[in-house]
């Protein structure tokens, strides 16, 4: 089955292709609200990882090499036109890893990548959140504000959600990414209420070109709290670049 991971949110056959990767515990639907706000010059695609939403019947993927191989096979048919990656939190981790992978196996690469609310990979590797008990993981989600109370208080929903979070944490915490400078240009979106600037700017060690830093308010989930500002910035960057 083709394109099961790539969901078309807004299609412009002649537009700049923007591929968006969701955060841990999320799914492609978080980008559906962008359809009416992203410029008409842009084709918007949301990447759906296995084991959630319409791909719930598929096994969750915790091996980064397997994930990159599958994502590349699905995204390869799109690479004959200019494309850009955007990833928030875990999505930024995946977007970087996929960009590095594409640079190695293809002559194509993103025009640039936007990494949003994502620490450099070494800050995830070696942590043990994926080993937390269900109670501990639920408490972590409650403190982060990532999950509404009505979901946290539903055993049926938590039985679905906790394995997804656990797998996503394992993906982040057990797959080591080499610190090598790739050629693709990068923009960094960040809220300093979430990640200190001096930490997130360590992404400079992963890119050959100078990275561009753009500050937002709103904490880790500024992608939602400051959605209008985020989309306005993306529209501006893409239309300025092309």
Report what the structure shows.
This protein is α/β, with parallel strands linked by helices and 242 residues long. The chain has a single domain (6-124, 179-241), classed as Alpha/Beta hydrolase fold, catalytic domain (Rossmann fold, 3-Layer(aba) Sandwich), CATH 3.40.50. It has 8 helices and 7 strands. It has helices spanning 64-75, 90-105, 134-144, 149-152, 155-174, 197-200, 222-225, 227-241; strands at 6-10, 16-21, 42-47, 83-88, 112-116, 185-191, 212-216. It has a 7-stranded mixed sheet, with helices on both faces. Strand 6 (185-191), helix 6 (197-200) and strand 7 form a beta-alpha-beta unit. Helix 1 packs across helix 2 (90-105). The longest helix has 20 residues, at 155-174. The protein is globular.
Order of helices and strands: EEEHEHEHHHEHEHH
CATH class descriptor name: Alpha Beta
Instruction: State the helicity in percent bands.
Output: 25-40%
Number of helices: 8
What is the count of structural domains? 1
Strand order of the largest sheet: 1-3-2-4-5-6-7
Class by helix and strand content? alpha/beta
Organism: hydrothermal vent metagenome
Keywords: Membrane, Transmembrane, Transmembrane helix
Protein name: Thioesterase
InterPro entries: AB_hydrolase_fold (IPR029058), TEII (IPR012223), Thioesterase (IPR001031)
